[in-house]
Amino acid sequence: MHKLLRAIGVLVMINFLAYLVYKGLMHQPKPAQRFQANFALKRLFDIAVSAAALLALTPVFFAIGVAIQLTSPGPVLYKAKRVGLNGKPFTLYKFRSMIVSADKVGPRITAGSDTRVTPIGRVLRRTKMDELPQLLNVLKGDMSLVGPRPEDPTYVQKYTPEQRRILDVKPGITSPASVEYRNEEAILQGPDWEHKYLTEVMPAKLKLDMDYAKDPSVDQDIRIILKTVQRIFS
């Protein structure tokens, strides 16, 4: 435990020092320097926080894994194909919250009262703990802590040319749209839920995240992370 706390402390200190350097660079008037400073610090912030979180949450990961194994046959992790930065596909990790091969026996979006969701899965999805393995995606560089939520390739094909600009930004675990649409599954009710998602929910979420993507920064990321935590426990 002492080594774990020391490792977390070192990561936090590195990130804090980088933040001070970043603030100094931000006083430079050139937009290119501002962009480079934003990008560099955001990546460093992602690495430091995801590494520290993975270390600190190891017991939680173990407990969730055991709970999934005891209550539902199949693997602990669910691997999903998503579209990332510059339209490049990648494998997204989640704790499995549905029956095995759920994506082959039903739609790719989970609507309210979906019978494919397991009992433990409902708890994980309600608390967003099923998203925790995406810290691995952040550490690998596929994702950021904050950024537009990565979409299924099937739905990305339906993006307009303007909406495809969202792919110029690295996807994230949470985003302004994630905060605003915290209870998305409850919104997607009824037989026309997919039509509602494509015509109302998805465009609204993309607009929120595209506004964020115009000028992402660590300051903004911290605020969004805090809002996310607040919404989960409210």
Question: If you had to describe this structure to a student in words, what would you say it looks like?
Answer:
This protein is mainly alpha-helical. The protein folds into 2 domains: 1-50; 57-233, no CATH class. The chain has 10 helices and 4 strands. The protein has helices at residues 2-25, 31-56, 58-71, 119-127, 134-140, 153-156, 176-180, 184-187, 193-213, 218-233; strands at residues 77-83, 89-95, 144-146, 172-174. The strands form 2 sheets. Strands 1-2 form a two-stranded antiparallel ribbon. Strands 3-4 form a two-stranded parallel ribbon. α1 packs antiparallel against α2 (31-56) and α2 crosses α5 (134-140). The longest helix has 26 residues, at 31-56. The model has no long low-confidence stretch (mean pLDDT 86).
Strands side by side in the biggest sheet:
1-2
Number of helices: 10
Mean pLDDT: 86
Instruction: Outline the low-pLDDT stretches.
Output: none
Overall shape: globular
Key structural traits:
234 residues; mainly alpha; 2 domains; two-stranded parallel ribbon; 4 strands
